[in-house]
Amino acid sequence: MKVFIILAAFATLAAAVELTDTQKTELKERAKACAGQEGVTKEQALALRAGNFEDADPKVKCFANCFLEKAGFVVDGQIKPDVVLAKLGPIAGVDKVKAVQAKCDSLNGADKCETSYELYKCYYQNRAEI
């Protein structure tokens, strides 16, 4: 489903960053799998993609966690800064990614789903810097 490029903002961090067709396909597949696993609706997915963080539904937060775990950015509720930098640095620039990491990577939620959601939210809100 095209709708499920929701967390591509974390992976690309800016609209100006171009993804290959292979990367886009991987993102869609990852997001689709997580959407099915967590049971998020199309409306919830579209809202998250648009940067609407008003939906506090635990399913949305666990969707973010699932996606970030499948991407390798998060393991057991802990961000992996080296993985984020290795994957995003070549796309967006190492210094820019490090600047956003300094703002976002220390965030923690009550559980791994909330932590991942807060990380996604922070990266999304700071995507213009990249």
UniProtKB/TrEMBL annotation:
GO BP annotations of the record are:
sensory perception of smell
Q: Which GO terms describe its molecular function?
A: odorant binding
Q: Pfam families annotated for this entry? A: PBP_GOBP (PF01395)
Annotated compartments? Secreted
GO cellular component annotations of the record: extracellular space
Q: Does the keyword Secreted feature in the UniProt annotation? A: yes
- Superkingdom classification of source: Eukaryota
Extent of the signal sequence: 1-16
Its keywords, alphabetically, are: Disulfide bond, Secreted, Signal
What's this protein's family per the entry? Answer: Belongs to the PBP/GOBP family.
**PANTHER family with a match to the protein in the record:** GEO07291P1-RELATED, ODORANT BINDING PROTEIN-RELATED
What is the name attached to this protein's record? Answer: GL10359
Q: Which organism is it from?
A: Drosophila persimilis
The beginning of the lineage is: Eukaryota, Metazoa, Ecdysozoa, Arthropoda, Hexapoda
